[in-house]
UniProtKB/TrEMBL annotation:
Keywords: Cell membrane, Disulfide bond, Glycoprotein, Membrane, Signal, Transmembrane, Transmembrane helix. The lineage of its organism: Eukaryota, Metazoa, Chordata, Craniata, Vertebrata. Belongs to the ELAPOR family. PROSITE patterns: MRH. Its main location: membrane. InterPro entries: Elapor1/2 (IPR039181), Elapor1/2_C (IPR056606), Elapor1/2_MRH (IPR056607), Man6P_isomerase_rcpt-bd_dom_sf (IPR009011), MRH_dom (IPR044865). This is MRH domain-containing protein. Residues 1-86 form the MRH domain. GO terms for cellular component: plasma membrane. It comes from Macaca mulatta. It is found in: Cell membrane. It is a single-pass type I membrane protein. The chain crosses the membrane at residues 135-159.
Length: 217
């Protein structure tokens, strides 16, 4: 990386492995010397290293044991936990235990590898009341039994009600049949097919005439 003509080669130090980029500080001195016509510069590469507590450790390039290869530009690597980002809620997770004797514990632990420092602390262990599988099994069996009993009672009720309705219907049918049998047969006054109306009228008139003669005698 280069800033204002000052370069900090990454290959001077071992590469970082946590995926957190290094923070580089650039320093320049404008004092010109015979060997350093452009002045002198220093770069300090700060790297996150959770295992190294504050203040951490300072290392020099492997190819330049004095920290400089030309006497004008100096490079240092500072590894420390203080260079790591602050811890947040995303850096820990909860472990929930099984339900034992109606009690369930929730424990919070840091994610591995831990690449944060400072920030928030781990929450305290939380204890909650829970229901075991046996409890829910008993509830399910009880609910199933009650449902079966209710269905049986409803079935018997509707069956008995249906029997009563069937009996009433049969009784109504029998009563209607008896009433039809008790009615007198109606005499028919209609003229049957093939009969002559005029003959009946003449016969009736003649009979009336004979009746009159008979009444005179």
């Amino acid at each position: 990386m280069t800033l204002d003509g000052i370069t900090s080669p990454a290959e001077l130090f071992h590469p970082e492995s946590l995926g957190i980029p290094d923070v580089i500080f650039f320093y320049r001195s404008n004092d010109v010397t015979q060997s350093c016509s452009s002045g002198r510069s220093t770069t300090i590469r700060v790297r996150c290293s959770p295992q190294k507590t504050v203040p951490g450790s300072l290392s020099l390039p492997g190819t330049c044991s004095d920290g400089t290869c030309d006497g004008c530009n100096f490079h240092f690597l500072w590894e420390s936990a203080a260079a790591c980002p602050l811890c947040s809620v995303a850096d820990y997770h909860a472990i929930v235990s099984s339900c034992v004797a109606g009690i369930q514990k929730t424990t919070y632990v840091w994610r591995e590898p831990k690449i944060c420092s400072g920030g928030i602390s781990l929450p305290e262990q939380r204890v909650t009341i829970c229901k075991t599988i046996d409890f829910w099994l008993k509830v399910g069996i009880s609910a199933g039994t009650c449902t079966a009993i209710l269905l049986t009672v409803l079935t018997c009720y509707f069956w008995k009600k249906n029997q009563k309705l069937e009996f009433k219907y049969s009784k109504l049918v029998m009563n209607a049949t008896l009433k039809d049998c008790d009615l007198p047969a109606a005499d028919s006054c209609a003229i049957m097919e093939g009969e002559d109306v005029e003959d009946d009228l003449i016969f009736t008139s003649k009979k009336s005439l004979f009746g009159k003669i008979k009444s005179f005698t």
